[in-house]
Amino acid sequence: MNKDQVEGRLDEAKGKVKEVAGKAVGNERLQAEGEVDQAGGKVQKTYGDTKENVKDAVKKGADKL
Hints:
Elements: H1 3-25, H2 28-64
Helix pairs in contact: 1-2
């Protein structure tokens, strides 16, 4: 697991908390901020997943040599 995967998952979790809190107190701005944080976290997590997959593929290719 790399840094981007971890940070992305954390941002998704923080965003979810903000979204739920915003809904609970009727704060649309906080809710929207949470949704944006979740989307950004998902992008970063996916980027980290892709980096990890490429690293694994390169390692497998190098092992075959």
